[in-house]
Amino acid sequence: MSKYYYLIAGLPDVTLDDSKLSYTVADFKTGIYPDLSAQDKGLVDLFYLKFDNENVLRLLKDKEAETDERGCFTAAELSEAIEQIREGGQPEVKHFPAYLATFISQYLQADFDEGILPENRLAALYYAHTMKSSNPFVASWFAFNLHLNNILIALTARKYKWEVAGSLVGDTEVGEALRTSGARDFGLSGEVEYFDALLKIHETEELLEREKKLDQLRWDWLEEATFFHYFTIERIFAFLVRLEMIERWVSLDKEKGNQLFRRMIGDLKNEVRIPAEFK
């Protein structure tokens, strides 16, 4: 019997259309996470690190900024790491990821290529880190999201005739095609199996409906990728990702959603990444 049989058997059933949530991403961190093996905790940490990314950006701009407690590190630990790097040392915080230390150092030295925003540089480092995961499912999940986000940015930029190169994240073959190809499909229809579905979703005019369809695409990807994983860490990881999707939708009313999407378009016009709320 799998070591996670009872953990997974006890997980609540969730669907993307759930209108309320009695179990949250924070609950997962205090409930299920402690029972995982050290190796599997490392995989789940890759998910939680995105909250640390946002927290680091906030603290670099404002030492007193409020932080999201769902990250792997406390505000005090992140502040300590930032100060240690500022003083020319290495962060002494236990298990502090190298990619985050690299970003903090580059930020403090303003060491970014011309036209590359700090947020995009951090996202690129994060995806490069997560896509190196030894777990094929987890690595593929992050690659899927990177490509999905970049394709959406490229489609929107093409629609409004905006410059796209500086807004794309990471250095991948898909990203290179999006930067250089003049083809309607960027030459990706045969390479990215979900490209046609994504193109159709992008054409959806109503913003919240479009975002719901994107989350459904993500949900379906997870369903297919974990089909043969019954009582494994892959199933637990997918549950956590889905939980966050539902949590976001439960808290998002229509007006706030439209405001966020208007900001997304405005940010893209100024060559800024898509807001973190929709990554």
- First-to-last CA distance: 36 Å
Helix/strand/pairing category: mainly alpha
Low-confidence stretches: 267-279
Shape: globular
Indicate the proportion of strand residues. under 5%
Count helical runs.
12
Radius of gyration: 19 Å
Calculate the mean pLDDT score and round it. 85
Largest sheet: none
**Share of helix, binned:** 55-70%
Order of helices and strands: HHHHHHHHHHHH
Got a strand count? 0
In a nutshell, what does this entry contain?
The protein is mostly helical. The chain is 60% helix and 0% strand.
List the helices and strands and how they pair.
Elements: H1 5-9, H2 25-31, H3 38-61, H4 75-86, H5 98-108, H6 118-130, H7 136-160, H8 173-180, H9 195-202, H10 207-225, H11 233-251, H12 254-269
Helix pairs in contact: 3-4, 3-6, 4-5, 5-6, 7-8, 7-9, 9-10
Descriptive notes:
The chain is an all-alpha fold. Helices cover about 60% and strands about 0% of the residues. The longest helix has 25 residues, at about 135-160. The relative contact order is 0.13.
Core attributes:
279 residues, mainly alpha, 60% helix
